[in-house]
Write a structure and sequence with these properties.
elongated; six-stranded mixed β-sheet; five-stranded mixed β-sheet
Length: 707
């Protein structure tokens, strides 16, 4: 059980203005009281109507009456394993959603969500009686037939629900409420079946509830799963909470102090105590040791406006000692699941530390109910930007011949868009099921910017820990097989580089259409889309997985040069002058000279690291200047993507500039990138910039620099 859900102060905002308190655990068995008159709701759903009217005072309840009558008559005679009439299940699911603030269409579909699956009612009947919207939602939560899919029925059912959720998140809202009620009554199942259902809930449904922002369902599901999968830890945590109930709790006194501070500052605010639920207490005990005092709860401060949140924060940090490491601003930077709040912690003079959450009433409603609190989040209108394709038959899909209408999704769930994309490439149910769990295991998202500014908004949404490989497949799909490099924030980097939030990424593709991914890409790919695409390509190109083991190609010999200083003059009569091979200075570089053994003067570029070393060991510094003659030797490094005839093209470009090649080194390719080192003799140093430009213009060359 969730301590947060059972505490009278855990959901205080729903008592304001006469609203029903959000208590998801109070529902037991719905009473079926026989026939009712045609002009009022059946008594069995009176509590649903009461909860619904608390959020939607003007709602038309006649459609709920018709939906209930169809559900009750079609399920009549069916019983649950607990011995209750089956109609109690859709009633319980509908009440959960009603207390979260779901609108009438969601409640109508919730009452009917099992009729097509378990009774003689057909989708055509639902569509004829309640319209396309309700029909689409009911179809989305209806399981596929096990007789058709066998062992793959469960993953294929989730695939179907997720695809439908891509067009209407209310499908998943009903599924989450359905699973919550089933978990509450799971005790009648065999232990092994309880464990199997609890694991699926942990791996799939709880992460989905988190992503959709429905914290009220997520926290209770976590506690129910915790009790089944970790009974010993659950009992230990329950004992800790029970023992704390008999001790003096410092939180009420801290709450009174906070109320007084805010009252004196003129800020209208409600301050409540939110006990932690079981899993939260368990996590605290793992990170901080045995919880005590204020560890069993947090303070919740509710205000009217966003600006008031920061006003409250200022007063708290002024009048109490803030714990700086605990401050997080999810208002300026909301989480990807709609969550907005300010988090902080304050220390009192008595030595107690209390965590504080500050949010507006609207933020709190969305934090608890997530997408359910948005009602119908889909608005159709001319010029709206679609965040996902509208499937045929989905609500709002344009009929053939009509003007196209696109969906506006205020949640902009990048994770859902990614999921809908990669699931099309995972026809195998096992691949889909394992990839889905891996995708949902990522609990944070990052946004990176495309260097070309393309796409809907010039950004790519990825899970935290994603690499350039993941960004490539997110941007280019299967064309990313030819990706041979990337620039992150303007710097060339490996494809295995992990990306951070707000990075700018430029992905470099090979000109050769036959290029494919390397086998080690799988070690660095994090997203299912990338892993599925890479695995599929490698399976269809088995020869590419184990390339022939040829001995590594030795680089061409590099001539060790000590170029003379014919065009450099040192202010040391009769001293031989040499240009340093480490930095190969050329006119008009700023240079410095140092006397070395034998009385010779070695000339370095000012920026050369050897200059500091010479000074540190006390070498004598000598002024150096350039002669009027400007012939010189220089070493250039050309970095390029591997392709046929590249060396010939580079050599031709150098020869076209009238430059003599003294020596060259070509290193073995690494990740399809090749490094060429050339030592060149130029008749005129002023031609060096033009030479470097000519080398950069060779196709495949992405950088040329002085060594």
């Amino acid at each position: 059980m969730s301590a947060e859900a059972t505490n009278p102060d855990a959901r205080p905002e729903f008592r304001r203005r006469g609203r029903t308190r959000l208590d998801l655990l109070r529902l037991g068995r719905a009473a079926l009281l026989g026939p009712t008159s045609r002009d009022r709701l059946p008594d069995a759903i009176g509590h649903v109507a009461e909860a619904h009217r608390a959020h939607h005072p003007d709602a038309d309840l006649s459609v709920l009456r018709r939906a209930y009558m169809l559900a009750e008559s079609s399920h009549r005679g069916q019983m649950r394993k607990s011995g209750e009439p089956y109609i109690t299940h859709p009633l319980a699911v509908t009440l959960i959603l009603a207390e979260l603030g779901a609108e009438t269409t969601t409640l109508t579909a919730s009452l009917l969500h099992d009729t097509v699956e378990d009774t003689e009612v057909t989708l055509d009947q639902v569509r004829q009686e309640f319209g396309d919207e309700v029909c689409f939602i009911v179809d989305g939560v209806t399981k596929v037939e096990r007789i058709d899919y066998g062992a793959a029925a469960e993953p294929e059912t989730f695939r179907k629900m997720l695809v439908a959720t891509g067009n209407d998140v209310r499908v998943m809202s009903i599924k989450l409420a359905d699973r919550l009620h089933n978990m509450r009554t799971l005790g009648v199942m065999r232990p092994e079946k309880q464990v199997r259902i609890a694991k699926v809930t942990r791996d799939v449904l709880i992460p989905l509830a988190e992503r959709l922002g429905v914290q009220a369902l997520k926290t209770e599901l976590e506690d129910l799963v915790f009790a089944i999968l970790h009974p010993e830890e659950y009992e230990r945590t329950r004992a800790l909470i029970a023992a704390h109930a008999g001790e003096r709790d410092p939180l009420p006194g801290i709450a009174d102090s906070v109320r007084a501070v805010l009252r004196d500052s003129g800020i209208q605010a409600e301050v409540h105590i939110r006990p932690r639920h079981f899993v939260s207490v368990h996590r605290i005990s793992l990170t901080r040791g045995e919880p005590r005092g204020s560890d069993f709860g947090r303070l919740l401060v509710l205000v009217a406006e966003n600006a008031d949140c920061y006003g409250v924060l200022g007063e708290l940090h002024t009048c109490f000692t803030p714990v700086v490491s605990e401050f997080k601003d999810f208002i300026a930077v909301p989480k990807f699941n709609l969550y907005q709040s300010l988090h902080t912690a304050i220390a009192t003079p008595g030595g107690n530390v209390a965590e504080v959450i500050v949010r507006t009433h609207q933020m709190h409603r969305v934090a608890e109910a997530g997408v359910v609190a948005l009602g119908n989040p889909y608005i159709f209108g001319e010029g709206a930007a679609a965040s996902a394709p509208v499937l045929p038959g989905a609500p709002g899909a344009a009929a053939e011949g009509e003007g196209e209408e696109e969906r506006v999704d205020p949640t902009r769930p990048g994770w859902l868009s990614r999921l809908l994309d990669w699931q099309q490439s995972a026809p195998d149910p096992d691949t889909f099921w394992s990839s889905l769990r891996a995708e949902l295991a990522q609990d944070r998202e990052i946004t990176v910017f495309r260097a070309d500014g393309g796409g809907a908004d010039g950004t790519i949404s990825l899970p935290a820990g994603a690499t350039c490989i993941d960004a490539a497949y997110a941007q280019y799909g299967e064309a990313a097989h030819g990706c041979i490099g990337a620039r992150v924030n303007g710097r060339l980097t490996s494809l295995a580089t992990r990306l951070a939030d707000a990075d700018t990424v430029q992905l470099l593709l090979a000109h050769d259409a036959s290029s494919g991914p390397a086998a080690d890409w799988l070690d660095h790919a994090r997203t299912p889309a990338a892993r599925i695409a890479i695995s599929t390509w490698l399976q269809s190109h088995p020869a590419a997985v184990k390339p022939p083991t040829a001995p590594p190609r030795a680089p061409l010999p590099m001539v060790s040069l000590r170029p003379g200083g014919r065009n450099a003059v040192a202010d040391l009569p009769d001293a031989p002058v040499r240009l340093a091979g480490c930095c190969t200075p050329v006119p008009p570089d700023s240079v410095a000279g140092f006397v070395v053994r034998g009385g010779a003067v070695t000339v370095h570029r000012i920026a050369c690291p050897a200059v500091e070393q010479m000074r540190s060991v006390g070498r004598t510094s000598v002024a150096v200047h350039w002669r009027a003659t400007a012939d010189c030797r220089v070493t250039l490094l050309a970095e390029s993507f591997g392709r046929p005839h590249l060396l010939a093209d580079l050599t031709e470009a150098i020869a076209h500039e009238g430059v003599e090649v003294i020596s060259a080194t070509v290193e073995a390719p690494i990740e399809q990138r090749v490094r060429h080192t050339y030592t060149l003799h130029l008749r005129d140093a002023t031609g060096l910039p033009g030479l470097m430009r000519a080398m950069r213009d060779v196709p495949g060359v992405y950088d040329v620099s002085r060594v």
